[in-house]
Amino acid sequence: MSSKLIYNEQQYTLDADKTLLENLESQAVSVEFHCRDGHCGACRSILVSGDVNYSSFPMAYLKEGEILLCCSKSEKNIIIKSL
Question: How confident is the model over 27-64, as pLDDT tens digits?
């Protein structure tokens, strides 16, 4: 059974080998971003449910419950929404 990525109430397939940003881009979802290594914070989103892992700890300031799509991955079902 494949994992699901739900972004702004739309369901997509989740590939655990890709960042959340790469997952959305590969499924033609338009997401605002400026970097791919956690420095700018443009892709900041709200984690509604699930867990993420960072390939490198993001440098952008994050409030509680926020994640960066450009440098985070998930292995299980995840629900996120844009700010």
Answer: 999 999 998 888 999 999 999 999 999 987 889 999 99
Place of tokens 């971003």: 33
Per DSSP, the three-state class of 24 is helix
- Class of residue 52 by CB neighbours under 10 A (exposed 0-12, middle 13-18, buried 19+): middle
Q: Give the pair of three-digit tokens for residue 50.
A: 């699930």
What is the DSSP secondary structure assignment for residue 26, as one 8-state letter? H
Looking up tokens 């509604």 gives 48
**Which amino acid is residue 14, in one-letter code?**
L
CA atoms lying within 13 Å on the CB side of residue 34: 6
Name the pLDDT band for 1 (thresholds 50, 70, 90).
low
Q: How far apart are CA 71 and CA 36, in angstroms?
A: 6
Q: What is the model's pTM?
A: 0.93
